Structures
1.
Amino acid sequence: MMFDAEKIRKDFPILDVHVNGKRLVYLDNAATTQKPKRVIDALVKYYSEENSNVHRGVHFLSDKATTLYENSRKTIAEFINAGKPEELIFVRGTTEAINLVASSYGEVSVGTGDEVIVSHLEHHSNIVPWQILCERKGASLKVIPVNDSGELDIEAYRKLLSSRTKIVAVNQISNSLGTVNPVREIIRQAHDAGAVVLIDGAQAVQHSNVDVRELDADFYAFSGHKMYGPTGIGILYGKEKLLDSMPPYQGGGDMIKNVSFEKTTYNELPYKFEAGTPDISGAIVLSEAVKYIKEIGIENIAGHERELLEYGTSKLSEIDGFRLVGNAKEKASVISFLLDGIHPYDTGAILDKTGIAVRTGLHCTEPLMKRFGIPGTVRASIAMYNTKEEIDALVNGVIKAKKMLS
Ligand code: PMP
């Protein structure tokens, strides 16, 4: 299929919105993506024609909702090439997925004197749950350093690994800088040291082909809302053997087999980790987003985004005083930058006046910003529906911001 961003844009109603009298230029896709009409329609259809609770009833609608919910699990399992749908747990998002693993797997695998490794590039969601675990268990947190380009120091990582390492948790693509991390190598080395690995794929599933079995990831986490799906739903993938060995994360309905006051027994996978009524509509609608991505083709999306990344980086770099933050050799579609002597917030506010949505600040990566000695960045993050014209608008907006603020 020929990739046609203009045609794709027509699938996203919100792209017609005007902001401050200007047509919206949405470049805040790493925070959340917009939703195609078929995803919105699927949500309306669910509540108009299919709504019922799952796994509980014998009636027609309950059966229908349950089938759609479980079919969605299958579709998403295929998308990341999981061995079985039962290895996918529906959660609220990446944050909950990581907390689930830190709390449950951490409980049985980490003890006093053990170590957990994260990287300096992590989102707070992939730092704080591990800190809480380490505090609880008397374990320590080790950090893989980054170089000035925003790449992980793999040699330093190798030296951090030891028999004390129980868990390594790193992202596949950095939300702040766009760095693509060598996760296959990271996983291989962790396994050699006897540790398990959680990959934070929040920024990877929508930009690259993810194959959890080829990666040999033990756990893989991502959020629906960053991949053209709804908010409130995400996935934790875990190898069956590991998930089976873990205690429940939350107690309630659906996660039990039998309940008595003397002894309660737990349900099998994946239900053991899905206590209470899940986000049924979110789960069903997420599979619609996955089908949409598959139809367009992740390679086509990645190719288009790479073109815009290169175009935007080169155009912006011509601006006097423009400083790119993060120029890893392997990068996904994030342009994080600063203008000399100008606070990122001010640049963002001027861009907003011209209808351009970018994110400014720490991007939930405060340690990383400290590492670079900066108060944050302006971040333009690109999705499949962005165009060269929009990148030109960004460049013009940045030139204008510079003139107004310096
Ligand atoms: N990790 C990364 C790399 C992210 O970009 C994000 C979202 N910005 C998260 C984790 C947290 O995702 P969520 O808020 O959807 O749980």
Note: The mean pLDDT is 97.
2.
Amino acid sequence: MKRVALLGATGSIGRQAIEIVEAHPRLELCAAASGSTPLDDVDAPLRQVGGDLTELLDRAEPDVVLNAVVGFAGIHATLWALERGVDLALANKESLVAGGDLALAALERGGGRILPVDSEHSALFQCLEGRAPEQVDTLVVTGSGGPFRGRSRDELEDVTPEQALAHPTWQMGPKITIDSATLANKGLEVIEAHYLFGIPYDRIEVVIQPTSIVHSLVRFRDGASLAHLGYPDMRVPISYALTYPERAATPLPPLDLTALALEFSAPDTETFPMLALARAAGERGGTAPCAFNAANEVAVGAFLDGRLPFLAVPEVVGDALSAADGAPARDVDDLVEADRLARELAQRGLPVA
Ligand code: NAD
Ligand code: MG
């Protein structure tokens, strides 16, 4: 039996993970956690609502941690797993973006592995098959472009949270859905790919593929490119990460190629500045990615609450990022402090109520 600790069990990823675990005879939940939503209907010997996730993990002694918490709140669980060499099935990209350097150091010490759950990174992981970075020409992270693909800045002036929450291809939690609308999600994913695969930023590209059938691809130095295709359904990367390297069956139908039209285009980085802001934060390094993430969490929260216009999200994040010192974090306390300071800077950039 493989014992899974599921963090973020009541969320979009969490619910789909429970389905995968229940369908597989060799997977069982040893612990489940949520932030504030009750876990009454989740069948796990240890359950925790709120509180310290690392205490739960200490008690649960899992074989794999599926971190499906949303936001920086997942950082301690990510570091817990990496430090101990426990498999980390990672959906919580924010923790790797914010704490990338600390996470890689913990991974090195712990000797374990990260099994990406984010669909693009699961795709890249499968195309790469552990190959060395020097064999890679470019990683190409694909994105749908979100609900506002093709719109001009003028057409984004008055968009509401409801409109931004209507994603064309994926059903996800509110935070990542807004990130998809601003393209901040692709920005976070570029940084995530950099840390997961050790490829420099100038060799990580973003391409729009509106139907989300091509989940990402790798161009290799010999001219071959490998792409990962499939219907957009998170049960596939969740199952892949939890059953790796088994590739267990899922209920998905086989891909009908004759019904597909695949079109690719460059992202509109002028209308959607979050992608370039994330890239710049990644290239700056230190705690700049942490500051980007923290300011984005604040701005997304304010947009969802109706306190911030859609077009002001990149302004708030850009200003906070310019004001943040970006100094490297020596330890997790430094990182938590950098996160706190960036949140404060972003708060100051919000319109007064
Ligand atoms: P969601 O909002 O649907 O669920 C979030 C879960 O995290 C909930 O169970 C919530 O209770 C829990 N949570 C929040 N704060 C917590 C805390 N402090 N302690 C413990 N639990 C806490 O979010 P989601 O869409 O499932 O996304 C989860 C993560 O997976 C995010 O990092 C997101 O970027 C990533 N991801 C999601 C998808 C998707 O399809 N939903 C795809 C790729 C990556
Ligand atoms: Mg993704």
Note: The first helix runs from residue 12 to 23.
